[in-house]
Write a structure and sequence with these properties.
Layout: H1 2-28, H2 39-53, H3 66-78, H4 90-101, H5 123-147, H6 152-163, H7 166-172, H8 178-199, H9 206-225, H10 229-248, H11 255-287, H12 300-304, H13 310-314, E1 325-331, E2 340-347, E3 362-367, E4 375-379, E5 400-405, E6 412-418, E7 426-430, E8 444-448, E9 465-469, E10 474-482, E11 491-497, E12 508-515, H14 521-527, H15 542-555, H16 569-573, E13 579-583, E14 590-593, H17 597-622, H18 630-651, H19 667-688, H20 692-721, H21 728-733
Antiparallel strand pairs: 1-4, 1-12, 2-3, 3-7, 3-11, 4-5, 5-8, 6-7, 7-11, 8-9, 10-11, 13-14
Helix pairs in contact: 2-5, 2-6, 3-4, 4-5, 5-6, 5-7, 5-8, 6-19, 7-20, 8-9, 8-10, 9-10, 9-11, 10-11, 10-18, 17-18, 17-19, 18-19
Length: 746
C-alpha cells in the first residue's frame, strides 16, 4: 500500500510540474484575444444612436399615444391589473421596465396629450428602450443585406436609408411600441439568415444553435409585443419549412441526421416560441396581482384571484351552493357589459309600444351594477324553508330548484308569453298571483356546463351553470338588448328554446354567496347586506388565468370611433396622410409622423420593379433560358421572399381589419421595402447595366437620388424632432400634399 501511495504522489508531482511549466509559458508570452470587428457596424450603430437619442427628453410633455401607453406603465408600477386588447403584454412590460429603471412611482395622470410631465416622471428612461430599438434598426438592416450575400455597398445603402427615414425616427423617440416591434421582426429575420448560412458549413456548432434559438425567441417577442408580429413569425416559419423540405431530400445526409435537423428546428421554432410567449403572461400576471379598473371584464373566478376588489368581497364565502343559499348570479358572457340577474317590484307594462301585450308580471333583468336586488335564494321545491339546513344539502348537476328573489320573495318564472324585445323568446319574470288562469311555472333544472361528472356539486365562482325551465325547456339567457325607460334601460333576460343551440349568454355563475340563516323576511333583508364568515381559498391555476386573459384580449372589442388622423391602408403607400403628434403650447414648434417621401416612393417602385423582374426571369427559366447563375437566382428569390413577403404580411392584413388605423401601422411593412430597395439597385447595376459607361451613369443617378433623400430628411427635420419653431410661410411650404395637416397658429 505504501508503494502505491508513493507512485500516486510521484504522478501528481509530474502533473503539477507540467501545469507550472505551462503557466510559465503563458507568463513568458502575452495572452492575445483577437476579435473580428466590423467598423461599418460600429459606425452605423453610433450614428443610429445619435439620431434617436439626441435630446430624447424633448418635448417634456405627453405626445400622442404616450397618453395611452403611459397609463399601463403606471398600472405596472402600482401592480394593478389591466386588460389591453391591442396585444400581448411583452411590449408594455418593456416600457414599464424603462420606468422601473428610472425610479418611476406611477404617479402621473395620463389624461391629456400635451400635458407637461411632472418632475417624478423619468422621461429619458421611459423613452430609452424604444429609442434603442430604433437605433439598432440601422446596423441590423446592414447585416440583413450582407447575410443575403449582397455587397457592402448595398448593405450600407439599406442602413443609411433606415437612418434618414423621418417617420422611423419620430416613432422611435417616444413611448411607443412600433420601433420595438420592427426591431424584433428584423432580429428574427437576421437570426434566421445567420443560422441558414451556418447550416452550409458548420451545422450543430454553438453559433448554429445560438442563431437558431434566437430566431425562435425573437419571433415570440415580436408576437408578444403586438399580434401583427405573428405574420412575420409565419413568414420565417414558411421559409424555414421550405429549407427543411430541401433538407429532407438531401441524399448526402443520413436519416438520423435529417431527423436531428428537423427536431432542432421544431424545438427552436415552435416549442421555444410557445414557452416564451407563456412566460410573458406568467410574468405579467405575477406583477399585476392587485384589483384594477378592468376587473369586471374578467370572470368572477379571475377577479377573486386578484388582491382587493371582488377577492375582498368574496373572501370567506362557502364553496358549495346548498338549498337555502343566498347568491348573486353573474352572466358569464359579459357582453355588452358584465351584469347580474336582477329583479325589482316594477312590472312589465300591460301593452308594449308595438301593441303586443305582456303578462304584467314583475320584471326580471340583468343589471350592470352591484345591488341588493341582485340577490336570489336557491329553494328546494319540496320544502318551504329558505335557510340552509344543518348539515347543508349541496345542489348537484341535474337537480330541480326554484330561485326566490331575495327582496320581494317572488319566484323566477317563465311561460309562453313573448319577451318584450325578443318576441321569438319567452318572457322571464317573477311570478305574481293575479288569481287568473296563469299558473306559476317556476321549476328550473340546474345544468353544470363545465362539470367533470354528472354528480358534480354546484360551486361558488367555479361552476358555470345553465337554468333549464322544466315546463318549456327554455334556458335562462341574457339577450343583451337594452329595455326602454319602463325597464330603466337595464338588459333584457329571456327564456331561449333549447333547440336554438348553445351560447355563452345562457351561462351564469355564482359570484357572491352566503348560507341563509333567517326564515323571517325582515331579518333576511338585513342578512343580505352582511358579510360572510367561512374562509375558502379559490386560487386559479396559471393556465386557467392565461387562457381566459388571452381569450378576452382576442375577443374584446373597444369602440373604434373615427379619429381625426385615422387613415386607410391605401393612403399609406403614397403618403397621403400624416399625424400631428404634438404642438408646442406657445410657439409653432411641432412633431409630425411624416415619412421621407423620396424613400417611400422609391421603396414602392423598387418592389414593383422586383416583382416584374422576378416574373420575367421565372417565365424565361420556364423556357430554359437562364439569365442569372443559379446562386444569383437563389439569392434573388430569398431576398424577395423575405422583403416582399415581409411587406405583404405586415400590410395586406390591414385591409381585413375593422379597427381605427393610423399611418404608423405601415412602418413594419415599410422597413422591409426599404431593405429591398438597395438590393434591387445592386441587381440593376450588376445584371442590367451591360457596359461600364452604363454602370457609371447609373451610379451617378443613385448618388443624386440619395442626395435628394437626404435633402428631404433635412427639410422635414423640424417636424421630426419638433425643436425648431417655423414661421407660417415656412410651415405652408412644407405642406407638399393638400392632405397633410400642418398646424399653423393664427
Amino acid at each position: 500500500m505504501g508503494k502505491g501511495t508513493l507512485e500516486a504522489d510521484k504522478t501528481l508531482g509530474i502533473l503539477l510540474s507540467l501545469l507550472f511549466y505551462k503557466m510559465l509559458g503563458f507568463l513568458r508570452h502575452p495572452l492575445v484575444v483577437t476579435a473580428d470587428i466590423n467598423l461599418n457596424v460600429v459606425a452605423l450603430t453610433g450614428v443610429g444612436l445619435l439620431s434617436r437619442l439626441w435630446r430624447l427628453t424633448y418635448p417634456r410633455a405627453v405626445v400622442f399615444d404616450e397618453v395611452y401607453y403611459g397609463q399601463y406603465i403606471s398600472f405596472y408600477m402600482k401592480r394593478i391589473f389591466f386588460l389591453d386588447d391591442s396585444g400581448p403584454p411583452f411590449g408594455h412590460m418593456l416600457l414599464a421596465l424603462g420606468g422601473y429603471l428610472g425610479g418611476f412611482d406611477g404617479n402621473f395622470l395620463w389624461n391629456r396629450i400635451g400635458a407637461e410631465y411632472s418632475s417624478n416622471v423619468p422621461v429619458w428612461s421611459l423613452r430609452l428602450l424604444p429609442a434603442l430599438a430604433g437605433a439598432f434598426l440601422v446596423p441590423m438592416a446592414y447585416q440583413i443585406v450582407l447575410e443575403l450575400n449582397f455587397s457592402h455597398c448595398a448593405a450600407m445603402g439599406a442602413a443609411l436609408l433606415v437612418l434618414i427615414e423621418n417617420a422611423l425616427i419620430t416613432q422611435s423617440r417616444l413611448i411607443l411600441l412600433e420601433s420595438v416591434l420592427i426591431f424584433f421582426n428584423l432580429l428574427s429575420v437576421l437570426s434566421y439568415l445567420k443560422f441558414s448560412n451556418l447550416q452550409k458549413h458548420s451545422p450543430f456548432s454553438p453559433s448554429w444553435w445560438f442563431w437558431l434559438m434566437l430566431t425562435g425567441v425573437a419571433c415570440s417577442c415580436a408576437v408578444g409585443i403586438k399580434y401583427m408580429g405573428v405574420f412575420t413569425y409565419l413568414l420565417v416559419l414558411s421559409i424555414a419549412a421550405v429549407h427543411a423540405w430541401h433538407l429532407i431530400g438531401d441524399q448526402t445526409l443520413s436519416n438520423v441526421c435529417v431527423f436531428c435537423h428537423l427536431l432542432a428546428r421544431t424545438v427552436a421554432l415552435l416549442i421555444i416560441p410557445i414557452l416564451t410567449y407563456l412566460l410573458f403572461f406568467y410574468v405579467h400576471l405575477i406583477l399585476l396581482y392587485r384589483s384594477g379598473p378592468h376587473d369586471q371584464i374578467m370572470s368572477s373566478a379571475f377577479q377573486a384571484s386578484l388582491e382587493g376588489g371582488l377577492a375582498r368581497i368574496t373572501r370567506g364565502q362557502p364553496l358549495e351552493v346548498a338549498y337555502g343559499s343566498q347568491v348573486t348570479l353573474r352572466s358569464v358572457f359579459g357582453k355588452p357589459m358584465p351584469c347580474w340577474l336582477h329583479s325589482h317590484q316594477n312590472t312589465y307594462p300591460m301593452i308594449y309600444e308595438n301593441g303586443r301585450g305582456s303578462s304584467h308580471q314583475q320584471q326580471v333583468t340583468c343589471y350592470p351594477f352591484k345591488d341588493v336586488n341582485n340577490w336570489w335564494i336557491v329553494k328546494d321545491p319540496g320544502r318551504h324553508q329558505l335557510v340552509v339546513g344543518n348539515p347543508p344539502r349541496p345542489i348537484r348537476h341535474g337537480d330541480i330548484v326554484q330561485l326566490v328573489h331575495g327582496m320581494t320573495t317572488r319566484l323566477l318564472n317563465t311561460h309562453d308569453v313573448a319577451a318584450p324585445l325578443s318576441p321569438h323568446s319567452q318572457e322571464v319574470s317573477c311570478y305574481i298571483d293575479y288569481n287568473i288562469s296563469m299558473p306559476a311555472q317556476n321549476l328550473w333544472r340546474l345544468e353544470i356546463v363545465n362539470r367533470e361528472s354528472d354528480t358534480d356539486v354546484w360551486k361558488t365562482i367555479m361552476s358555470e351553470v345553465r337554468f333549464v325551465h322544466v315546463n318549456t325547456s327554455a334556458i335562462l339567457k341574457l339577450s343583451g338588448a337594452h329595455l326602454p325607460d319602463w325597464g330603466f334601460r337595464q338588459l333584457e333576460v329571456v327564456g331561449e328554446k333549447l333547440s336554438r343551440g348553445f351560447h355563452e349568454s345562457m351561462v351564469w355563475n355564482v359570484e357572491e354567496h352566503r348560507y341563509g340563516k333567517s326564515q323571517e323576511q325582515k331579518e333576511r333583508e338585513l342578512e343580505l347586506h352582511s358579510p360572510t364568515q367561512v374562509d375558502i381559498s379559490r386560487n386559479l391555476s396559471f393556465m386557467a388565468r392565461f387562457s381566459e386573459l388571452q381569450w378576452r384580449m382576442l375577443t374584446l372589442r373597444t369602440d373604434d370611433s373615427e379619429h381625426k388622423y385615422s387613415s386607410t391602408p391605401l393612403e399609406w403607400v403614397t403618403l397621403d396622410t400624416n399625424i400631428a403628434y404634438w404642438l408646442h403650447p406657445r410657439t409653432s414648434a411641432q412633431i409630425h409622423l411624416l415619412g421621407n417621401i423620396t424613400i417611400w416612393a422609391s421603396a414602392s417602385l423598387a418592389m414593383v420593379t422586383y416583382a416584374l423582374l422576378f416574373f420575367w426571369y421565372l417565365l424565361r427559366r420556364r423556357r430554359s433560358i437562364r439569365d442569372l447563375p443559379e446562386d444569383c437566382w437563389l439569392r434573388w428569390v430569398l431576398a424577395g421572399a423575405l422583403c416582399c413577403g415581409g411587406w405583404a404580411v405586415n400590410y395586406l392584413p390591414f385591409f381585413m381589419m375593422e379597427k381605427t388605423l393610423f399611418l404608423y401601422h405601415y412602418l413594419p411593412a415599410l422597413t422591409f421595402q426599404i431593405i429591398l430597395l438597395p438590393v434591387v439597385l445592386q441587381h440593376v447595376n450588376d445584371h442590367l447595366c451591360r457596359s461600364q459607361l452604363q454602370r457609371s451613369v447609373f451610379s451617378a443617378l443613385v448618388v443624386a437620388w440619395y442626395s435628394s433623400a437626404c435633402h428631404v430628411f433635412n427639410t422635414l427635420r423640424p417636424l421630426t424632432y419638433g425643436d425648431t419653431p417655423l414661421s407660417p410661410s415656412e410651415l405652408r411650404a412644407l405642406r407638399w400634399r393638400d392632405s397633410w395637416d400642418i398646424l399653423i397658429r393664427k
